[in-house]
Amino acid sequence: MRAVIQRVSSASVKVDGRITGEIQQGLLLLVGIEDSDAKEDLEWLSGKVVNLRIFNDEEGVMNKCVKDIEGGILVVSQFTLHAATKKGNRPSYIRASKPEIAVPLYEQFKQQLATDLGKEIQAGIFGADMKVALLNDGPVTIIIDTKNRE
Fold it and tell me: Which candidate in 80, 85, 141, 146 is catalytic?
C-alpha cells in the first residue's frame, strides 16, 4: 500500500457535487493498493498513520499525533499512486489492484483506522470521480509505502 499523508486544517471530498467525507484539523490520506497488499500491510499502515507525530505541541514542535489532537482522518482511494513512469510519457497503472482485490482491502483499511483512531473515518467513494479540497497545514506531506518500511 502507498499513502500520501497530508496534515490539514480542513479537507473534504465530493462525488457528483455531494460531500461524502469532510474533516477539520487532521489527516488527508490518499491511498493506493496493489495486488501484493495484505491485511498485515493495512494494519501496519493504520498504526503508523494514527501514531505519526506530525502535529505541533505547546512549544511548536511536531510531537503530537492525530489521536493526541483528537483530529479527523479523511481517506481517498487513488490508484494513480502506483503509476509507473519509467517508459514513455503515459503512465502505466498495471501495479494498481483491480476493484475486486482493492475494494475489500480499502474497506478493511478504513475499519482498521477507525479502530486505531477510536472514531469514525471520513472517506471518498472507491472508483468514483472525486473532487478533493484541502487546506494543507505547514505544509506537511509524507509518503509511506508498506513495501519500503524505512
Answer: 80
